[in-house]
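Example 9 (inverse folding). The structure is encoded as follows.
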């Protein structure tokens, strides 16, 4: 196989030929003096400070009532779930597929896609009427407790509802 039959060799020859032609066609004038560019300072960004995930806190009743007034259907528009069953096909809870992904208030919660919500304020949500029972009870509840599992480990979110 000769040198001209190799695509790589042809590409190299073409590049060298083009470079040679450009060099030969160059001006005979004295080249301009090129001043080196100012050195670019490399600024290393400081890593963001670690903020532990939020598992407890307070919710102002006025803020909660605004959400409750919007209705359960409206709230659920930002939440994606799918039923989750154990190995024996018993219902465990609802696996989160998303939880208000564009709302910064939910970004710090220790509740993520893949987590399985098992109970809210002690009630297992299996049917729509269970969800409405919890939703309505939040108007007078003193706290919001979400029991969930992450990779089989039981976890809780606990928020006092303050007037």
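The amino acid assigned to each position is listed next.
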């Amino acid at each position: 196989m000769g040198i001209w039959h190799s695509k790589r060799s042809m590409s190299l020859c073409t590049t060298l030929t083009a470079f040679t032609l450009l060099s030969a066609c160059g001006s005979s004038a004295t080249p301009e003096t090129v001043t080196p560019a100012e050195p670019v300072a490399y600024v290393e960004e400081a890593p963001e400070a670690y903020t532990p995930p939020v598992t407890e806190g307070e919710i102002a009743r006025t803020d909660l009532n605004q959400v409750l007034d919007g209705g359960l259907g409206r709230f659920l528009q930002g939440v994606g779930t799918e039923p989750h069953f154990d190995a024996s096909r018993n219902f465990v809870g609802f696996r989160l597929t998303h939880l208000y992904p564009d709302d910064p208030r939910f970004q710090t919660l220790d509740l993520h896609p893949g987590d399985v919500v098992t109970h809210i304020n002690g009630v297992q949500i299996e049917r729509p009427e269970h969800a409405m029972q919890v939703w309505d009870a939040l108007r007078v509840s003193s706290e919001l407790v979400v029991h969930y599992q992450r990779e089989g480990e039981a976890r809780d979110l606990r928020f006092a509802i303050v007037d």
